[in-house]
Sequence to fold (260 residues):
Amino acid sequence: MRWIRVKPGVDMERLRERLGRQGVVIEPDRDLPDVARIVSGDSMAARTEEYQKGLYVIQDKASALVSWVASPSGKVAVDPTAGAAVKASHMAWLGARYVVAGDVKPSRLVEAKRTRARLSIGHLVDLVAGDARSPYLRRFDTAIVDPPCTDIGRLQYEPEVKLWLGRGDLHYFRRLQLRIVSAVAEAAPPRSTIVYSVCTLTRSETIWVVRRLLERHQELELVEPEPVLGERPRRLPRSQRLLPHLHGTQGFFIAKLVKL
Fold:
């Protein structure tokens, strides 16, 4: 199942009609007002004139939920592991005052520049080349930390993911994830929020990371990751997990923390 995220101000019903004439059938989501499910024609979704004009982005519903949880309206936001800046662009669309999107890989910043140009958000989103383990910002209101992971949550779309996972990858990723989110927590000012999300479902990369983070940083408090659309893990009920077979999305884990 594929999803799109629609630009603010775009009439969803009119977009639905226009895309339908091009063979892309969408159905507005009942939970998130800017998200629609692609019922059919997903192979054409990135070829339409509306896509080229930046009227929508191809993004999974679970991934879009992360920015809603961050609640960036009127805030200075940072995404230090931004990749192609999809979540950063969403925070801009949700009313962030200013967004800084960074990545350690120059190739991903090239993708981010394309995203920013297509969506015409250059006045709101700045791009930075940098290592998230050494955060380059000290003043922000909210941060999304979506670090590299095993990507097990994408298996339904890209089953080849399991071909490049090695025996030690799980331990490598959880250490990297904890190091990145800890560095962001250290840089975060009081009363700021951090949303930790990963496109995977392993306990090591989700619950383990958040628990170790809370042990290291007692100034952090786990809060409700609203809106809650997924299930609550029994071992960490103040978080949420979306599952492909239950929610029709990628597998995703989301937790929200406030620095006191």
